[in-house]
Amino acid sequence: MELTAKVPTAKVPSHCTGTYGDAGDPDPFQWDTREDCEVRQILDRVADKWSLLVIALLDRRVMRFTELKREIDGVSQRMLTVTLRQLERDGLVKRTVHPVVPPRVEYELTPLGGTLHTTIRSLVTWTEQHQNEIAAAREEYDAREATTAA
Question: What global pTM score does this model have?
Answer without folding.
Answer: 0.68
